[in-house]
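My main concern about presentation is that the manuscript never shows what a single data entry looks like. For the editor and my fellow referees, an illustration may be useful. For illustration, here is how one protein appears when written out as sequence plus structure tokens:

***
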Amino acid sequence: MNNDEQPRVVSFTSCLTIIIFGMMIFIGLFFFFAVRTTKNPVPAYDENARALMTVIPAPTLTPTVYATRVPQTLEIHYVSEDGLSVGTVVEVYDTGSTGLSVRPQPGTGGYLNFVANEGERFKIIDGPDSRNNYIWWKIESVNDPDRNGWAASDYLRAVK
């Protein structure tokens, strides 16, 4: 053997083996990723595509309304044969020139509050009360609520 000739550290066959082995790994990885991407293909980009989104509203407080029972009152008003009743507007008539005596209490005894003139209008606010052979109604002036008292129905008539 020549001294000029040195032994080869890497042989031709070992280089060829390494290249073939590397190519096999490369081809195997290529097929592995190719098959993997065909199972779940990436969709093509679509300019008109829209995303679907579900919006869940935030919870809010709902007001609770409790039913309450309102007592109902039934008011029954007497209506006389002359059409007089609580709430009716009446006028003084047939008193001549003396007028109608209006008293603090029903009946002919006691003091006078005032004397109502012929044609003066009042609203019936209470009654009837039967005393001294008269039917008495509590009346109040339509112009002055302080002018009120009890008057005999014989001298009152309903205003239409």
The first strand starts at residue 89 and ends at 92.
